[in-house]
Amino acid sequence: MAPDQESVSTAIQEPLCAVFRRRLKQAGHKYTPERARILDAIIRIDDIFDAETLQRALSAGGHDVSKATVYRTLKLLQDAGIIQQLMIDPEQSRWQLVYGRSPRAVLIRVDTDEITPIDLPGLDELCRRACADRGLRLEGRRLHIFATGD
Amino acid sequence: MAPDQESVSTAIQEPLCAVFRRRLKQAGHKYTPERARILDAIIRIDDIFDAETLQRALSAGGHDVSKATVYRTLKLLQDAGIIQQLMIDPEQSRWQLVYGRSPRAVLIRVDTDEITPIDLPGLDELCRRACADRGLRLEGRRLHIFATGD
DNA sequence: GTCGGTGCAAATGCTTTGCATTGAT
DNA sequence: ATCAATGCAAAGCATTTGCACCGAC
What we know:
By secondary structure, the first copy, chain A, is of the alpha+beta class. Chain A folds into 2 domains: 1-100, Winged helix-like DNA-binding domain superfamily/Winged helix DNA-binding domain (Arc Repressor Mutant, subunit A); 102-150, Dna Ligase, domain 1. Chain A has 6 helices and 6 strands. Chain A has helices spanning 8-13, 16-26, 33-45, 51-60, 67-79, 123-133; strands at 49-50, 83-89, 92-97, 105-109, 115-118, 136-149. A 3-stranded antiparallel β-sheet of chain A has the order 1-3-2. In chain A, a hairpin with a 2-residue loop joins strand 2 and strand 3. In chain A, helix 3 (33-45) crosses helix 4, helix 3 (33-45) crosses helix 5 and helix 4 (51-60) packs across helix 5. Chain A is globular, with a radius of gyration of 17 Å. The structure holds a DNA duplex.
């Protein structure tokens, strides 16, 4: 149980909260109700989100969590490889769930400000090759596409 | 002279400062020495840069420019399509020259924090197709690749 | 001569941090 | 019981803005 190295298939089947709990323990952190609720809210949102949206979703669910804890937990979730921080606009950070799946690209409509995560087959291979060509190992990627409607 | 729509080949041959001056005039702005010097410094840096690096380069060249003007001019250069704002880390923005060429991807060594712009043939086509599939027109893109050495 | 630009210092707003209290293990 | 986590309010810090003076057109 709880192998140090887990395959992606294992990852997909294991509940995310269990993954988070294990990663926290490995790093000497505690698994608190606040942290559980934050991850839960992120899973429910199932989209790109910012800190304020997340905090509001928590409040709406009857669980007020302080801004400080939200930010501290987001960092932990990032360190655990569960979420990825996007930097779409410099005003505020947004995050997306990435654990157990290929990070999606982000499509930004510059005319409507609509933000949509999309799958882009072939992107991973492109990045992997770019790294391999330089003797490096791909650790992550972030693609923002800016587009406009006709 | 000074066509409203210019081809890429024209763009490459025309000095960037002339492009900037023209775009400023079109938008009812003035072409000031500070703005000229800022663009000049950016061209000389010829790499990814942040606001502080840019301001220091200007000072080193004997031309002090205020932080406020640096930021205001960066926004104008961005609106003119001459530079692109990157958001590599949430601490501070960085920019790169993009006028007349395909924006380069950014390779970030997570072990050394080294940041290198790279060309990634095929990326443009990938993004263009993703937009076309959704009836959109590609306006820009930003790819950050995180990698580590062995 | 007109407006827009510049520099300074103050303001802004997201994110982080210090500290006393609370709670997971 | 211990040591980390929480919440609050205050601090940080890159970036923006108000305002008086200056300068491109």
